[in-house]
Specification:
This protein has helices spanning 19-24, 45-54, 70-83, 105-123, 133-138, 142-147, 224-230, 235-242, 287-294, 298-305, and strands spanning 5-10, 29-36, 40-41, 58-64, 93-96, 127-132, 150-153, 170-177, 186-191, 213-217, 255-259, 270-273, 276-280, 318-322. It has 324 residues and is α/β, with parallel strands linked by helices. The protein folds into three domains: 5-195, TIM Barrel, CATH 3.20.20.80; 213-259, Roll (Membrane-bound Lytic Murein Transglycosylase D, Chain A), CATH 3.10.350; 270-322, Membrane-bound Lytic Murein Transglycosylase D, Chain A (Roll), CATH 3.10.350.10. The strands form three sheets. Strands 1-2-4-5-6-7-8-9 form an eight-stranded mixed barrel. 40% of the residues are buried. Residues 262-275 have low confidence and may be disordered.
């Protein structure tokens, strides 16, 4: 029987994490959200990556895929590879593709294959598919299963249903776990030794992507929203690039790195995804004003996003809002 390696997966939803406590609690692997779509860097990506590494944890990185065509899948793969360039992950790079909109099964598989192949080509790293048990059974086909390993999510079971896969390398068994050093709920996982990459060399910048990093000195009255708009980028991308955990806290004279690469698209407010939206909190927003805007209750937003303090939200963070 293979040894079981304990892990978690995190994003900005978990807020500040004390990785020394995480390590001491028995966790060995941390999968970190790096990017989403065409232009979003998770605001805690760099902080989570650097602090995980500093505390001796093994790191995996994932991208939340939103592509609706093969060409967009390849663009998002290039974007993901660009975001994680310079890092040295220990675990296979993961594709998280779970919101399909009006795509049919054939289109979903074509988009998935294009993304995975492009990521592998650009980074030289092995990749893995993250999927819930339902999509592993009913959506992702046997071709993908024969080419790429599975990290499966299914809660309340001892042995997950893996569909077209005969085995799994990752098993997300809870989305409401408690781990020392993390104040919010977090996903809990177990992994096998096959999750580790065969090479731990740094990921280089894709040849067809020219990163243009400029610096900007914060002026009196500046906000990250204003700066992001000026440079045609996003609050989350600036926050991620500069390790800013609270986008509301910048100070005059602070020097910010700004990626002025021509992005495929820029998300500045909200993005529709089937029955819910992802809303980017703007400066001055409150949960009351957001709830009124979308005719939902504050309680529903708090519950869906595991918000511990409804009076404490930050510009640039993302909120799920259920429109049902």
């Amino acid at each position: 029987m293979q040894p079981i390696i304990l892990g978690i997966d995190v994003s900005h939803w978990q807020g500040h994490i004390d990785y020394a406590q995480v390590k001491n609690s028995g966790i060995d692997i941390v999968y970190i959200k790096a990017s989403q779509g065409n232009s979003i860097v998770d605001s805690y990506f760099r902080t989570n990556y650097e602090n995980s590494k500093a505390n001796g944890l093994k790191v995996g990185l994932y991208h939340f895929l939103t592509a609706r065509s093969v060409s967009e899948a390849e663009q998002q793969a290039t974007y993901f590879a660009s975001v994680i360039s310079g890092t040295s992950p220990d675990c296979k790079l993961a594709m998280d593709f779970e919101v399909f909109g009006d795509l049919n099964v054939q289109q979903i598989n074509e988009i998935s294959l294009a993304f995975l192949q492009k990521v592998q080509q650009l980074t030289g790293k092995e990749v893995i598919i993250y999927s819930d048990a339902s999509n592993a059974n009913n959506t992702f086909n046997s071709q993908l299963a024969s080419m790429y390993p599975l990290w499966v999510a299914e809660y309340g079971v001892r042995t997950p249903n893996t569909g077209n896969w005969s085995s799994y390398e990752g098993f997300q068994y809870s989305d409401s776990g408690r781990v020392s050093g993390i104040s919010n709920y977090t996903d809990l996982d177990t992994f096998t030794e096959q999750i580790f990459l065969s090479s731990s060399e740094n990921i280089s910048t894709p040849e067809n992507t020219t990163n243009q990093i400029q610096t900007y000195t914060v002026q009196p009255g500046d906000t990250l929203s204003q700066i992001a708009s000026k440079y045609n980028t996003t609050v989350s991308e600036i926050a991620g690039l500069n390790g800013i955990s609270n986008p509301n806290l910048i100070y005059v004279g602070q020097v910010l790195k700004i990626d002025t690469t021509n992005h495929i698209s820029v998300v500045t407010s909200d993005k529709y995804e089937t029955n819910h939206i992802i809303y980017t909190i703007q400066s001055g927003d409150t949960l009351t004003s957001i709830a009124q805007k979308y005719d939902v209750t504050i309680a529903s937003i708090v519950q869906l996003n595991n918000i511990q303090n409804p009076n404490l939200i930050y510009a640039g963070e993302l909120l799920k809002i259920n429109l049902n």
